[in-house]
Amino acid sequence: MDSTCCTSSCETVQSQANPAWRRILWIALAANTLMFLIEIAAGAVSGSRSLQADALDFLGDAANYAISLGVTGMALAWRARTAMIKGFTIFTFALGVLISAIWGLFAGGQPEPWMMSGIGALALFVNVTVARMLYRFRSGDANMRSVWICSRNDAINNLLVIAAGFAVLLTGSGLPDIIAAFIIAFLGLQGGLEVIKQARRELSGAGTAT
């Protein structure tokens, strides 16, 4: 992507300067911070690895939304560099989730299924609401796309937590909770790499244009 004001980059700059974009980011930041606090507490009380994994994901997303607010309106190269940092942040949090899931395999235990599913449903409502607001910005630059990927993956994660809660209830085993945590980790790793790759392409295009 060129760093000069070609049609696609002009559209992205206009979207970045859109007050609606900033307003949605502030809403997403507040919602993700609140859900991190709720899920980390619920995960500790219920003993659910998938809830704790999703809470870490909420924390990483809150940081990413804050970063996105800080670079709104900046030149493409700076937004791409910031997206690169966000991609690595997503990837790092996913690694933490993966380590937690592996530890859960050895630690064992059975989480409280009703709390898992209930908190998962609340988180799903929050994430679907944010994702719907962000949907029209999904095809922007790496910075905007990373925000969309965060919201999309979060909604999928919440469905996994809800399903895992019911599976734990039906089977009497904590294994579904661990499996959900592994899937959440995989989605985070994949999403982080996707953002990093797009940011590298944009940085390369900005470099050739200067």
Automatic annotation (TrEMBL):
InterPro entries named among the record's database cross-references: Cation_efflux_TM (IPR058533), Cation_efflux_TMD_sf (IPR027469), CDF_Transporter (IPR050291)
Transmembrane spans: 24-42, 62-80, 87-108, 114-135, 155-172, 178-196
Localisation: Membrane
Location, primary (coarse class): membrane
Protein's name according to its UniProt entry: Co/Zn/Cd efflux system component
Membrane topology of the entry: Multi-pass membrane protein
UniProt KW Transmembrane helix keyword: yes
Pfam families in the record: Cation_efflux
Gene Ontology MF annotations: monoatomic cation transmembrane transporter activity
Lineage: Bacteria, Pseudomonadati, Pseudomonadota, Alphaproteobacteria, Sphingomonadales
Keywords: Membrane, Transmembrane, Transmembrane helix, Transport
Organism: Sphingosinicella microcystinivorans
Residues of the Cation efflux protein transmembrane domain: 25-203
UniProt GO cellular component terms: membrane
